[in-house]
Specification:
276 residues, alpha+beta, 4 helices, 7 strands, disordered N terminus
């Protein structure tokens, strides 16, 4: 399915190129915006038949509406949308034919219908297919095609309902995933906060230990200072005692010297008396 190009909906002028008439009104491609597919053309303004062509180009089958034709090129709009010019020299099995407008729109709707599952926006594609079926329904003049179109529209309605359910399911999954992501983020934040609190608690515990250790060192130091102070007082008392003892020793030494002098004198007197 070709999906290139964007075409306005409605009747265009009849092109006369190389004596071949082509209907210039172009439907939007399946991937076109829904607003373009919403355009309405009155059945009485549409041609009864559409100039069609099919050919093989480089091994690929091409089938669609003839937009324009020259002596060397034929421009064909595919049923899926998008117009391409094909050189006649490279085209094989070129065949032109007329197709009732109702069948043309039905075939276009079939192509869009088949592409719903692979489309970028299935909802838009399904809506486009429905509008094309409705257009074919307004153009048909046979009970057989009317019944067939109604069956296809019923199948399309079932498909659209399924697509809607899948959209709801995807939305539920998206919300569930968003909620799960939120729960996961909250869990991660809670874990990070808990880890931070644990680190903070460890830091406080360590500070408490260091504070207790410092307090103990201060207590030991205070005790040592008191002991040193007591020792200093004892040393002061000893120094005082030493000072007192020094005075006593000096006095004793003086007394000793005095006594020694007296003894020497007595010895001399004794010696002198003995000699006399």
């Amino acid at each position: 399915m070709l999906a290139t190009g964007k075409f306005a909906v409605g009747l265009g002028m009849v092109l006369c190129v190389a004596a071949v008439r082509g209907w210039a009104a172009q439907e939007p491609a399946p991937a076109a915006a829904a607003a373009a597919a919403d355009a309405v053309v009155s059945p009485e303004n549409l041609p009864r038949t559409i100039d069609m062509a099919e050919l093989t180009f480089h091994g690929r089958k091409v089938r669609g509406r003839v937009i324009a034709e020259t002596e060397t090129t034929i421009h064909i709009e595919g049923l899926g949308g998008g117009t391409t010019g094909y050189p006649k020299k490279g085209a094989e099995d070129l065949r032109r034919f007329a197709l009732k407008s109702s069948l043309y729109f039905e075939q276009r709707a079939d192509v869009v219908h088949e592409s719903v599952w692979t489309a970028g926006d299935p909802g838009v594609e399904a809506m486009t297919a429905r509008r094309l079926y409705l257009r074919a329904l307004t153009l048909t003049d046979t009970d057989e095609q009317t019944a067939r179109l109604k069956r296809k529209m019923e199948n399309l309605a079932t498909l659209r309902e399924q697509l809607h359910k899948e959209d709801l399911h995807r939305e539920e999954l998206r919300k569930a995933k968003a909620e799960a992501d939120l729960v996961e983020k909250e869990k991660m934040l809670a874990e990070a906060k808990l880890k931070s609190l644990e680190q903070y608690d460890k830091a406080i515990t360590q500070l408490q230990k260091e504070f207790l250790a410092l307090h103990e060192r201060n207590r030991v130091l205070a005790t040592a200072i008191e002991e040193l102070a007591e020792e200093a007082e004892d040393m002061a008392d000893e120094i005082d005692d030493l000072d007192n003892n020094r005075t006593l020793i000096i006095n004793l030494n003086r007394n000793y010297e005095t006594l020694k002098g007296d003894v020497d004198r007595l010895r001399r007197l004794v010696t002198r008396s003995a000699n006399d």
